[in-house]
Design a protein that fits this description.
CATH superfamily: Small protein B
Number of strands: 9
CATH class: Mainly Beta
CATH topology: Small Protein B, Chain: A
Distance between the termini: 39 Å
Helix content: 25-40%
Number of helices: 4
Order of helices and strands: EHEHEEEEEHEEH
Largest sheet: 7 strands, antiparallel
Oligomer: single chain
Strand order of the largest sheet: 1-8-9-2-7-5-4
Radius of gyration: 18 Å
Mean pLDDT: 87
Structural class: alpha+beta
Strand content: 35-45%
Low-confidence stretches: none
CATH architecture: Beta Barrel
Length: about 150
C-alpha cells in the first residue's frame, strides 16, 4: 500500500444528517496496540461520538472500538475516552467556536493515513427539523432529475 493512501475505517453518516459541517480538520489519535489491530479489522463505531476540550486537551468520547479477539489481557475498555493529537492553537480555536451556542465538535471519520490512524473532526452546527426535511427534499429532487436524465439518454 502506498504511503500517502487513505483507507477509511469508519464514517459518521449520522453527523451529516444531524449537523451542518462548517469546517473540518485532521487529528491524530492516541491508541494502544490492540486497538490499532482492531481498527485494521474495521471494528469501529462513531455513531454517538463527540469531542470535548478538557484541561487544554481534545478528548474523543463515545467512540466504540471493539476489543481485539487475540488481545487477552492487553485489551482496553471499548468505550474509553481517547486523546486527540492537535496543536494547542488549533484546540483553543475550536474550543472557542464550540462555546458558541449551537456548535459542536463531532468526529466525521476514522481512517489510516499510511500506517497512522487519523480522525477527521468537524466543527458542526445543529440542524433543525425543517433543515433535515429540506435536505431530504433536495436529495429526492436530485435523484428524480438524475433518473429522468438517464432515461432520456437511453
Amino acid at each position: 500500500m502506498p504511503k500517502n493512501e487513505n483507507r477509511t475505517i469508519a464514517q459518521n453518516k449520522k453527523a451529516f444528517h444531524d449537523y451542518f459541517v462548517e469546517e473540518s480538520l485532521e487529528a491524530g489519535i492516541e491508541l494502544f496496540g490492540t486497538e490499532v489491530k482492531s481498527l485494521r479489522q474495521g471494528r469501529c463505531n462513531l455513531k454517538d461520538a463527540w469531542c470535548s476540550v478538557v484541561n487544554g486537551e481534545m478528548i474523543l468520547n463515545g467512540c466504540h472500538i471493539s476489543p481485539y479477539e487475540q488481545g487477552n489481557i492487553f485489551n482496553r475498555d471499548p468505550m474509553r475516552v481517547r486523546r486527540l493529537l492537535l496543536h494547542k492553537r488549533e484546540i483553543m480555536r475550536l474550543y472557542g467556536y464550540s462555546k458558541i451556542e449551537g456548535y459542536s465538535l463531532i468526529p466525521l471519520s476514522v481512517y489510516f493515513k499510511g500506517s497512522r490512524v487519523k480522525v477527521q473532526v468537524g466543527l458542526c452546527k445543529g440542524k433543525k427539523l425543517y433543515d433535515k426535511r429540506a435536505d431530504m427534499a433536495a436529495r429526492d429532487a436530485k435523484r428524480d432529475m438524475d433518473r429522468a436524465i438517464k432515461e432520456r439518454n437511453r
